[in-house]
Structures are given as C-alpha cells and as structure tokens.
Amino acid sequence: MGSNSTSTAENNCNVTHLTFQYSLYATTYIFIFIPGLLANSAALWVLCRFISKKNKAIIFMINLSVADLAHVLSLPLRIYYYINRNWPFQKALCLLCFYLKYLNMYASIFFLTCISLQRCLFLLKPFKARNWKRRYDVAISAAIWVIVGTACLPLPILRSAGLANNSESCFADLGLHDISMASSIGMVTAAELGGFVLPVVIITYCTWKTRKSLQEFQDPPQNIKERKKALRMVLMCAVVFIVCFTPYHLNFPFFMMVKQHVFSNCSFIKSTLCFHIISLCLANLNCCLDPVVYYFMTSEFRDQISEHGSLVIQSCVRCKDSTLEIHQRKENLQTISLECLDVPTQCDEIII
C-alpha cells in the first residue's frame, strides 16, 4: 500500500476520485450536527445534574454522550472541508478530527454493550444490583477510554501520509502509509473481533436472556413493567448497533483487502469503496440515535426532561403575565393622569 491516496488497481479502475463522497459527507454532517449537538448537550446536562440514581447504566450513558458530543463538535470542520475541498487549518487539527471519529465509533460500541449487559444482569440478578457500587462503573468507563483511545491511535497515524505532501488535503483525501500484510491482517482482526463480533455476541445474548425472562417468569405487574423497560433498552441498543456499526464492519475487511491490492475486479473495487463511504455516513448517525436510548428507555431521564421543561414553560408564562400586568397598570396610570388634567378638583378629592 503506497503513500498515495489510491492504489494502482484503483487507478486502473478509474476510482481515483469518488466525487459523490464530498456532497454525501457534507449533507450527512449538516443533517446530524444541530440535532446531535442539542440532544447530547441536553442529555449530558440532565444525566449529570438531575439524576440522583446512578444505577441503570447511567454512568455509561454519561460517557456515551461525552463520546458523541466530542465527535459532533468536530463536524463543522468536516463540513467546511467537504464543501470547500480545502484544509486551511493545522495538520494536527485534521488528524485530531479524524481520531475523534473512530474514538467515538468504538467508544460508543463498548458503552452500548455495557449498557445492555448491565441492564440484563441487574434484571436477572437484582440482589447483585443492590450491592453494585458506582465506582465500579466509573472504573469500567475509565478502562474503556484507555483501551479504545490507545487502540485508535494507529488510525490517524496511518492516514497522515497525505499531510506531508499536501497541506490542503484532509479526511477522505488523506493517503495511507505502507504497512505489511501481517500488520493489516492484525489490525482488521482486532477491529472485527474486539470491536464488532464480541459486542454483537454480548448484545444478542442480553436481548435473548431479557426476552426469555419476560416470557418465563410470572412476576407482579411492577416487576413485569421493569422487565419490559429493560427489554426495550437492550433492543434499542441493538438497533443502534445494527444500523450504525454493522455495515461498516461488514465492509471493513474487504476495504482493507482492496487497499492491499488483493482484488483486481473493477466492479468489486468500486462497490467496496462506495459502500465504505456509505457505511461511514451510517456510523455517524449514532450521535443522533444514542439520545433516543436515554429519553425513551430511561424513565428518570424522561421524567426530568418533562419536569424541568414544564418549569421553563411555567416561568415563561409567569413572565408574560407579569409583563401584561405591568403594561395594564401603566395604562391605568396614564388614564388617571389624563382625567386629572381635565378635572383637577376631582383629582384633589381622590388624593385626599
């Protein structure tokens, strides 16, 4: 794999520039920026400030919203580049934005997996949930950040080849450094097994066990309601995982093989590269879908949003009523003043 943005096979197949990627990336980032920014900012504010109960995977949700928000904040720079096709900023900033994209992807995968696993285990073993400490979730979250942050470091390093020659290129136009076939196989294996296969197995198992417990056990209505909530949350995590991350990881091994000149069929090469672009756009949608997990699947979050949203509305109504009352009093005073000018003696009697 050379340091140029495309291999010889790609050049022969006339896929040096997939021009549709610029408009597709720009449209996708514009579409998710405002909803992702507002939803994750509100989610982080509510989760950190107003939720006192730190069970039910709340700590993992906080970390998930932080991962999403970090990526969302880098989107304006991506939008600028894909519209103007020019990078006037520092090279390090380009690599940082590139790094945050994959950091968000794999951090989201692991935190969604932890949410599903914890909700399932706490439902099946409620006595263990009572003894579970908040610091355990904090330690697990810290370990995830360290592991994912370290594992994602090679990705921007591999894509920094184009920055050495052309400072105006970034993101999709970055080149690739030479790596051996063994290194490529090792990277793909680690990403697929650790970042996809293992989470898929865990989320599938949690979904099956949660659904099975709901069908088998005849609990009181309150317990059945709690099991349904847990099942909805696990299912929502599975939906986000399938929609956002499965297409990318199904295509990733073929993408790397194309970059390693394994294939020579032009139709297959074009299809693989095009699907890689589409799968990356789908992966970005998790920034908008993750807050759905918080709102619809966590009763505490929903209650706090409703409560504080109602307080804001009530405050606005009270402010409006006060303004109207002040305006009415002002009009009454003006009316009295005009009457005093017309009939001074009556005013004297009113004052007395």
Topology, element by element:
Elements: H1 8-12, H2 20-49, H3 58-72, H4 75-84, H5 91-124, H6 126-131, H7 134-151, H8 154-158, H9 161-165, H10 181-216, H11 221-244, H12 246-259, H13 266-284, H14 286-297, H15 299-342, H16 344-351
- CATH topology of the largest domain, by name, is Rhopdopsin 7-helix transmembrane proteins
- Count of separate structural domains: 2
Rg of Cα set: 28 Å
- Described by the principal axes of the CA atoms, the overall outline is globular
Number-wise, the strands total: 0
- Measured as a percent range, the helix fraction is over 70%
Question: Could you describe the 3D structure shown?
Answer:
By secondary structure, this protein is mainly α. The chain has two domains: 8-297, Rhopdopsin 7-helix transmembrane proteins (Up-down Bundle); 317-351. Helix content is 81%, strand content 0%. It has 16 helices and no strands. The protein has helices at 8-12, 20-49, 58-72, 75-84, 91-124, 126-131, 134-151, 154-158, 161-165, 181-216, 221-244, 246-259, 266-284, 286-297, 299-342, 344-351. It holds the Pfam family 7tm_1.
Brief synopsis:
This protein is mainly alpha-helical and 352 residues long. The protein contains 16 helices and no strands. It is 81% helix and 0% strand.
Which characteristics define this entry?
2 domains, disordered N terminus, Rhopdopsin 7-helix transmembrane proteins, about 350 residues, glycoprotein, mainly alpha, globular, disordered C terminus, transducer, transmembrane helix
